[in-house]
Amino acid sequence: MRREVALRDGHQCTFVAEDGRRCPARRRLEFHHQRVAFAKRGEATAANISLCCTAHHGLATEQEFGREHVARRVAEARQARERRRVAKAPSPGTAFTTSSFAFGPT
């Protein structure tokens, strides 16, 4: 399905401005549930998905759900990432020594 959408959309953002110009972005593209949002049980079909650059995907999401909702969800995701990062980090004062690794018999 991803390949089908990318080929159909010409590997380019599908956003079209009011003046009729299409966004020229071909990098940092994301799959956007165009007709029915994924959060509203939108299907992952080529007919319901289009390519959008990061900026236009964010714009479409804000238009669908509201700026406050999107800001809250972004903040929640950042906090969750930070909690995972902290949980994985070694304790302060933990030193790595050669005996910490398997170098074979010493």
Task: Write up this protein.
This is HNH endonuclease. Residues 78-106 are annotated as: Disordered. Residues 94-106 have a biased composition (Polar residues). There is one protein chain. This protein has 106 residues and is mainly alpha-helical. The protein has one domain (2-80). It is built from three helices and two strands. It has helices at 2-8, 54-65, 67-88; strands at residues 29-33, 49-53. It has a two-stranded antiparallel ribbon with strand order 1-2. 11% of the residues are buried. The mean pLDDT is 83.
Helix percentage: 25-40%
The ordered H/E elements are HEEHH
Strand tally is 2
Distance between the termini: 54 Å
SS-based class: mainly alpha
The overall average pLDDT, rounded, is 83
Whole-number count of domains: 1
Oligomeric form of this entry?
A: single chain
How big is the Rg?
Answer: 21 Å
DSSP helix count? 3
Overall form: elongated
Show unreliable segments: none
Q: Biggest sheet, strands in spatial order? A: 1-2
Strand content: 5-15%
Gist of the model:
Residues 78-106 are annotated as: Disordered. By secondary structure, this protein is mainly alpha-helical.
Task: Show the helix and strand layout.
Elements: H1 2-8, E1 29-33, E2 49-53, H2 54-65, H3 67-88
Antiparallel strand pairs: 1-2
List keywords for this structure.
106 residues; 2 strands; elongated; mainly alpha; 3 helices
